[in-house]
Amino acid sequence: MTIALIGLLLLAASDETHGTTTQVIYVNNRSGDDRFNGRSPERQPNGSGPLKSINAAIRQSSHGGRIVVVPTDSPYDEQVVVHGARLHGFSSQPLVIDGGGATISGRRSFHPDSWDRIAPGSFVRHGSRDSSGTLIIDGKLQEPVPNPINGAKPAINPGEHAFWFGRYYLRLEPETDISKLDIDECRRGAGMAIIHASHVTVRNFAFDGFGFDGAQVYGPAEAVIFKDCKFLDNADSGLTVRNDASVVLDNCQIAGNGASGLNVLNFSDVDLADSAFEENLVNRSVDATSRIKDLGGEFDAKAAASAGSPKKPRAKPSAPAATSPPAKAAPVKPKASSLFD
Question: Per its UniProt record, what Pfam families does this chain match (predicted)?
Answer without folding.
Answer: Beta_helix
